[in-house]
Amino acid sequence: MGKKAFILFLVVCSLSCGCATRPTDPEELRVYEENNDPLEPWNRGVHAFNQVADKWVLKPVAKGYRYVVPSFFRDTVSSFFDNLTQPVHFANALLQAQFKDAGSILGRFATNTTFGFFGLFDVATEAGIPNPANDFGQTLAKWGWQGDGGPYIVLPFLGPSNVRDGIGTGVDMLANPLGWALWNEKELHYGLIALDAVSTRERALDLLDDLEKSSTDYYATLRSMSRQNRKKKLNTVLSGQETDEKPEYEADFSDIEWED
């Protein structure tokens, strides 16, 4: 599916979905407004679709990838794709006026591209250079679209998000230099996208398995955890602080803090 077709698919799905009934009981209404999930019936349907796709396709491939490919080579793949995203992170850091983050990102990209053989080796982390991973959803929040960023939504294949961060994800995907560099090499481009998805899923195998096993309602747990950790990332930008942490893997709830 091309990028334009994918975006159109998301728009059509959003317009055709049903809404959850707004409760009248005060306590239920409080929880309803706190969740900010008026599209819950649709979102649960997309969540179920994502779970089926993950169970029968992505997760088995990720497990096979972990079994067959030694950890050293898996790390080089992860480092390579992380390095490719640095120009987008750099642009967002500048748009957010996070100049220390921008310096860290530029330093990472130069270090890993030069001394890490085009990003195959994460020399920058060994040198203590942070990996802020600024994104366009944060940029929109910095420009004034704050709060929850609109209703909670679950995107096909991509998972938990909201309207603001969903738009941000789309912009970051379109701005990724890999797509522009391989504009006329569609098969190679899509192959690399698939490899990146498998690499990302492999790094999340243990975390998501534990999360699913410990949850009575996996959908609600993902919603809570993803929003909690997304809020933490946004607060870093909105407060003017600089980011010093390296994400465990590229996902909205990568740095989950487990709470009772």
How does this structure look, described?
The protein has 260 residues and is mainly alpha-helical. The protein is 65% helix and 3% strand. The protein is built from 13 helices and 2 strands; from the N terminus they run ααααααααββααααα. It has a two-stranded antiparallel sheet. A hairpin with a 3-residue loop joins strand 1 (152-155) and strand 2. Helix 4 crosses helix 11 (186-203), helix 8 (136-142) packs across helix 9 and helix 8 crosses helix 13 (218-238). It is globular. The N and C termini lie far apart (41 Å).
Q: Which terms would index this structure?
A:
260 residues; mainly alpha; two-stranded antiparallel ribbon; 13 helices; 2 strands; disordered C terminus
The best one-word shape is globular
Uncertain stretches of 5 or more adjacent residues: 246-260
- Our count of helices gives 13
Order of helices and strands: HHHHHHHHEEHHHHH
Sequence of strands across the biggest β-sheet: 1-2
| Major sheet attributes | 2 strands, antiparallel
Extended strand count: 2
Distance between the termini: 41 Å
Mean pLDDT: 85
- Beta-strand fraction estimate: under 5%
The radius of gyration is 19 Å
Estimate percent helicity.
Answer: 55-70%
Quickly give the structural class. Answer: mainly alpha
